[in-house]
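Box 3.1. Reading complex inputs
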Amino acid sequence: MRQQAAVAAKVFIQRDYTNGTVCQFQTKFPSELETRLDKQQFEETVRTLNNLYAEAEKLGSQSYIEGCLACLTAYTVFLCMETHYEKVLKKITKYIQEQNDKIYAPRGLLLTDPIERGLRVIEVTIFEDRSLTR
Amino acid sequence: MKKCEYQQIDPRALPTPTPTPTPTPPHHRGDDDGGGGGKSDELKRPRRKWEVFPGKNRFYCGGRIIVARQSGVLPLTLGLILVTSGLFFMFDCPFLVKHLTSCIPVVGGVLFVFVVITLLQTSFTDPGILPRATPDEAADIEKQIDNTGNASYRPPPRTKEVLINQQVVKLKYCFTCKMFRPPRTSHCSLCDNCVERFDHHCPWVGNCVGKRNYRFFYTFIVSLSFLTAFIFGCVTTHLALRAQGGKGLVFALQESPGSAVELVICFFSVWSILGLSGFHTYLVASNLTTNEDIKGSWSGKSGEDVTNPYSHKNIFINCCYVLCGPLPPSLIDRRGFLPADESAQTSGADIEVPTVATKSEINVCTQGTKGLLESASLPPLLSTSCPQGKPQTAHTCPDNNSPAVNSDPSPELSMSCGARRAASPQGDGSPSHHTKTRWKKSKRAALHVPNPAFDVPVSPTSPDAASFAPSQ
């Protein structure tokens, strides 16, 4: 599906480092989106993403078992196994796609998966309303 | 140097990612603007991201192999390990199996395999390189920064303060990568990349040690300590057994000359490697990086009451977290394809050829903003080749100097460095900058599904589910 709309602006949701190096994004609602999107909706999306990233980096029994097993095998197990982190990243990609289809695309917005921006930002592309085609 | 100043990105002139393909030069040329020639190539053949990777790296085998511009001491490290272990298995093991136990070569073999595998993993794994900011992002940050009213000709170092677990942490703006570095991230001047949880740049291993390969590095030095100590012990036993009955050490050495070589290598290296392992065990237990330890970030030197905000306050948890915690995948996607109309996604030009970069410095600088925005290849060129890059590096020097600390001394050559390390693990503030850059290779690249061509955000749907960066 080729998007014919022109990009009006891009908003970048930056990382929130108050909890350390864990991947979290700021939930502050950007003013540029005020006309297009509900504040609650936006915060819900970012909060869910933050929870998913927290789940990926969680220090749980699963990650420890994975880590210890990897250590015992001189980390060669990483060559054949998908880590928990990667599995959650796939979940996140799916979630973002869903959100785009259901909520953002109808409003002329597009969320870019943060992994494509090196987990630096959530890029929200704002398209011009008039030329939106599907 | 003053002639070429940091160039402001003009957000009004940013190219929007509309369906017009913006040509980026496939090979770096003397003329920065010369991008037209590559256009037809681009339209025909989808390019991979490694071809436009802006760091100081070279790529072979279609992006599967990533090396630094100059080869380094890694072959020496590997060679010494192989030679010492080879001599051990050839000269000492037969004698010791006959006179003692056959477990010796088994234990030696396991340790040797561990050492080699972890060494190769440390060298060939992406340490946690952060991809550079896209021009749009950079413009957004610049705009925000300059809104605070900074109008001086030479902008001061830009910092942002955040509160992490009740500690004030300063985030520095990286002029090369055009982003505020996350906490614990540092820009390595040797590799010209920002690396997450930067520990140091290790010349012996030929790579930076960062978030993604620290555990491999730690396992490497610990298993190397065991291997070195084990070989040293076995060789000593071997020679002692041979010298029994009044025959003397000289006789024993004559009978087994290989053992003499091993003895020398192991004797001089075991202290430094043991010291290094001890030092890194301390770092792991307190969840510190070499960089932070050397700079004294959390030791309260400034007189304030500072504690490490990243520590879990429990040695066991710290160890588990650093060594067995979740391993994030690589954020740079070497084998992924560039979208056909890619302009702003990845920082454009390949900077393999330093001479050409020098030639074009003046071009780039005088073109300024306009030149920067005309093609996506300019941003990294501007920041890396331009003399302004040097003051930028100077800004970030306190970070960069410590990364180059020589940390993993291999046998024999390591005495001076290793002794320093063993003697004063915390006090070694003199970074031994090895100008030789190292190479790292990712053997995982071939094993994972490369990122299929994803659409730029122009398309209404975000890139499909399969298109996340492959783990490296």
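In summary: Chain A touches chain B through 61 residues (CB under 8 Å).
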